[in-house]
Specification:
10 helices, ATP-binding, 13 strands, magnesium, 60s Ribosomal Protein L30, Chain: A, 4-stranded mixed beta sheet, binds adenosine-5'-diphosphate, alpha+beta, Phosphoribosyl-aminoimidazole Synthetase, Chain A, domain 2, binds magnesium ion, thiamine-phosphate kinase activity, about 25% strand, 7-stranded mixed beta sheet, PurM-like_N
Length: about 325
Amino acid sequence: MALTEFSLIKQFFADATQKRQDVIVDIGDDCAVLSCPEDSNIAISIDTLVSGIHFFADVDPYTLGHKSLAVGLSDLAAMGATPAWFTLALTLPELNENWLSAFAEGMATLAAEHDIQLVGGDTTKGPLSISIQVHGLVRKGAQLQRSQAKSSDKIYITGTLGDAGAALQKRLASWQPEILSEADWSFLTKRLQQPTPRLAISQKVLPYVNAAIDISDGLLADLGHILTASGKGAKINLDAIPLSPSLKKIDRKRALELALSSGDDYELCFTVPAEHVPAIKALNLDIQQIGEITDEQQIVLLNENGQPSLLDITTKGYDHFA
Ligand code: ADP
Ligand code: MG
């Protein structure tokens, strides 16, 4: 039987994710109705991924389903929120059953990992685009905001930086250093196509953090947002920037440029007052201290010789309308 808008919703989305107790009215009515615990507030974020802008039209739909949800989950992690519900606005050029099934599976697999339920959406015809709005719960007053960095806070990042940027350069600029093997490229490509939202780390460090952001547009740009919002600057020790084994193989300057300025990593950057550093260390997480917050409103990069170079914190990063 031919797929229609309604059979599509029923087949691929109505039961795509596990059911939560706090969903009072599920997919199928005019609105979803959700119940929020009394001690929490709701954190909301929406992201749109447009074919040809945010992903290549020929991308594997399973990974696209994963990434469409991952970028929103990353925002919840940056806010210190725990995932609860999401809605999905899908614009499709055609009804392709294989494509939809893989897309829904990629999305649902990540949703199951984070106990987030799809509770509604909209389906329209047009150029391929995906909007996901995520809703998370954050204990009253416990949200992590960009504006709360304090002088001499230590700056931490999760995971490694620059991997997604390297994969993007290969696809966009045919940049392909010989030193990188098949295995390196499959690792780097996975980092671009299926980022890991750092919710587990976020929940563990939450009690100790002053300010946080997720790195979607590059460390300098996104740390820059913390600094601007907080009226602060930062000193970054380039030697401390964590690079993956794959990125360590390439020219160091190139690797650092990717780590500082390329986007799509979806790691977290957060600041911690010095008195909480022992507690953070004791957690034994995949995080790295890369520098500290300063009073002067600039980013100072310290290279391996301890030589500082000044960067205007407003100059870097991706701007869709630039
Ligand atoms: P309405 O016309 O009232 O907006 P729709 O016909 O758009 O309702 O959608 C019917 C139901 O299916 C609604 O509950 C809506 O939230 C849900 N829905 C529509 N598209 C999607 C989708 N892509 N994913 C999940 N739920 C969807
Ligand atoms: Mg509708």
